[in-house]
Amino acid sequence: MEISSKENTQFFSNTTILPVDRSSFKSESSTSKEKQSCCGGIKIFLGALSFVYFAKALSGSYLKSTITQIERRFDIPSSLVGVIDGSFEIGNLLTIILVSYFGAKLHRPRIIGAGCLIMSAGTFLIAMPQFFMGRYRYERFPSTINSTVSMSPCLQDESQTPLSALEKSQAKINAGCEKEAGSSMWIYVLLGNLLRGIGETPIQPLGITYIDDYAIEENAALYIGCVQTVAIIGPIFGFLLGSLCAKLYVDIGFVDLDSVTITHKDVQWVGAWWLGYLIAGVISVLAGIPFWFLPKHLPKPESRKDSSTSSEQSKFITEDNKDQHKSYQQHVKIAEMAKDFLPSLRNLFGNPVYILYSCASIIQFNSLIGMVTYKPKYIEQQYGQTSSKTNFVIGLINIPAVAFGIFSGGLIMKKFRINVLGAAKLSLGSSFFGYLLLLSLFAMGCENSDVAGLTVSYHGTKWTTHYEQALFSECNSGCACSKNDWDPICGENGVTYISACLAGCQASNGSGKNTVFFNCSCVGTLESPSRSSSAVVGPCQKGNECPKMFLYFLVISVITSYTLSVGGTPGYILLLRCIKPHLKSFALGIYTLAIRVLAGIPAPVYFGVAIDTTCLKWGSKRCGGRGACRLYDSSALRYVYLGLTLVLGTVSIFFSVAVLWVLRKRSSPQDETLSANGERGACGTKSRKDNFVNSDRLIQTTYWPEKETRL
Length: 711
Description:
By secondary structure, the chain is mainly alpha-helical.
């Protein structure tokens, strides 16, 4: 691996270069050529890495946008969807240490290219169940299906239904059971996401450190900020693609769309979730192509330490370390590299800044990953929005705010030449104010929809206790209804009924989406509860205040997203500057591993389990058993979703304060401010700059050993 502390200042001066094993003299023309080669090389790699970040972010965000679609299509609870989402992190877990440690010493660009191919294969695998499982079946009473058979929704007895119709219906159910019992197609989605995680592994640790190795130190933060900012375009397109596919019926191209009796506003609607994965897979293949033609090393830049602008990292390097780094540039056997594994690991774990910042990040990512994973579901259930509109709003409003925040963080770092201590302050401040804004979202929720037998009684009284036994009432006591059905209709009194049968409807007119039910004994006004009324297919809309609350939610959500994102790039710089250069890839790999294992895997699962506890009405599978949730308690969902996010965020802030305290304790007053010539203070230094610029021997005997043990 190349020495990241050896930055090239030839972009700004005509200083001659003294490369290893070459003549000490170089002509001005050859120096100019090397400058152009180095500059061009890093920019090409920067562009290629940005496109890969775009591709992986697009497929990852598209998965987030299809969470509710996958849940309905495979009829599974949120907790199981969380396991599927976490399988991406499991894939990272399987390979992250090996890739980040050994990959740093091999051909980094080609390893990234191979990862892109694996990532695309996993993306294609996710879409495969659509082509092997049967057509999607949603719950609909026969009267709402285009059929010549006319029957009453309120079945007084089974004789009202023709025998042939009952037999055909039962035969279809039995056939569906046989097929369902022999297949759990969601496993293919899990395995595909697992493969995506394996392919994505080398992109971050190898790509970021490659840039940091060959970029001028003061430009590194801006370059990393640019990569992450361009990567945010991926989620924008990912969620917009999710919005488009959510409007298309899941079996588009396989069935006659005129026969579909539900719309994209129905809670049973499933969009063409599989289509976006095919598009994302093709993009991942294209993104990996440039890396097969990039060099293993760019033209070696001059040492940062020897340049006019001293590197923060060069202050950590002793002569012994330099000799050690030179050996990394030579051919090293895998066995020899393996011997350094445990010492390198001990070195990282002995660094309190690295450990404390990792703990803060792990807890904060638990908060953010859980929040982002279930944000589409939260918006749909809390504010009554469709999947298509939800994804459109997130992609067009929230994601650009995140991009602007990340870019702002990198720009602030470069413009004000902020040192490591300043980066820690900026990261802490963004987290504190971001989670403070999150508190206000508790007041921006909607009340539960009026659903007879679940949130209100059949007489219009709000429920204060639990539910299931109240689905039946005197008004529908004469009907042979099932409590497991979910085929909601909206009564003219503004109350949603779980099915036309439970609404006591005796007749219907029309078919499909235009069906109207009449003589519904349970649909009445409070003034005349005995008067029979009509109802239409589909649930009623949320209250009049809900659209206004949704607007407030969007405004605060955008500001919160921007505020939290400002601290992203300073956090990266803090991580890179507080470890020895030859351990950067390894440190980022361990850091990423910790995020995957302790945040990426468990967060979607326990967030999903917590959200499942707020479900009011579960769907039923064809062969029995609990399916996906049809209706959530809005108030309980708000407190669980936002409360869990806020508690985790608050804990992470305490660890960030500890990081700042350690840095302050080990920093001299001169290190906390920028010097006149623009030098930045070293991470956690205790001695003044003069202690390590005058004598290498002094560095070796006093400064570095202390740095080794205390940081």
